[in-house]
Amino acid sequence: MSRVLVVGAVAALGGLVVVFVPTLGVGLPLSYGAILAVGGLALLVGLALVRSRLDTDRDTATLPAVESPPDHPVPGDEFDTALAAIAPRRDRANDAARAEIRERLEAAALATLAREGHPREVALDMLDSGEWTDDPVAAAFFATEPVDSTEASFGERLRSSVSGSYSFTVQAKHAAHAIARRAGVGDE
Prior knowledge:
Layout: H1 2-20, H2 32-54, H3 77-84, H4 92-115, H5 120-129, H6 136-142, H7 154-163, H8 168-183
Helix pairs in contact: 4-5, 4-8, 6-8
C-alpha cells in the first residue's frame, strides 16, 4: 500500500513540476498510449485505496460517549416526597409519617429560633403559642391550642370552615415555608 502511495506522490509531483515549468516536459513523448498509462495508474491507485478502506474493521465512526451532568439531589425533594406519601386516612403508617414530618419541622424551627438567640424553652413556648410566625396556618401546625386565625385570608378561612381544619399537608407546607422565610432561605 505504501509503495502505491509513493509512486502516486512522485507522479503528482512530476506533473506539478511540468505544469509550472513547461520546458521540462518538451522532451517527453505525449502519445495516446502514455495518456492511457497515466490514467490506468490513477485507476489502480484509486482501486487500491477503496480496497484498503473496505478491509478495515470499522463500519462507522466511533464518537466519544457524551458526558451527562450528574444528578444532584435538590434540597427539599425528600421532604416533598415524604409529605406527598401521607394519605388522608388515619392509620399507624400515616400517623408515624406525620409524626416524623412534625419532628423534622419542629427541629428545623427550633434550630432557626436558637440561631436567633432564643433558649430552647422560650422557642418551644413560641411554637406552642404560634408567635414564631405571622402565618396563622403555620402557627397552628405546632400549637397545642387553637391559634387566632383572624389574620387568615378569606379563602383560608373558608377552607378551614368547610373542612373543619386545615389538612396536615397544607399546614406542614405552610410551616416549612415559614421556617424557611424566618431562616432567610429561598424565595418562597
